[in-house]
Design a protein that fits this description.
17 kDa surface antigen, mainly alpha, single chain
Length: 68
């Protein structure tokens, strides 16, 4: 339950800042959020950071109505 609370808080804070202007900004925020979630779940952070960067960079291409 404690991990769920950490992950929820991290995703909420990252989600609020996710609609930044450029792919670089979204990628950076995604990397930080992914790293933090991976570490909260007991990982070393590299997989989460990579997934977060990929999601942040491609967000506006895949979901144009959500990420601008």
């Amino acid at each position: 339950m404690r991990n769920f609370t950490k992950v929820t808080a991290i995703l909420a804070l990252t989600g609020l800042a996710a609609c930044e202007g450029s792919d670089l900004e979204r990628g950076a925020l995604g990397g930080v959020g992914g790293y933090a979630v991976d570490r909260a779940m007991g990982g070393d952070g590299t997989i989460g950071a990579a997934a977060g960067i990929a999601a942040g960079v491609t967000c506006d291409d895949l979901t144009p109505g959500v990420c601008r």
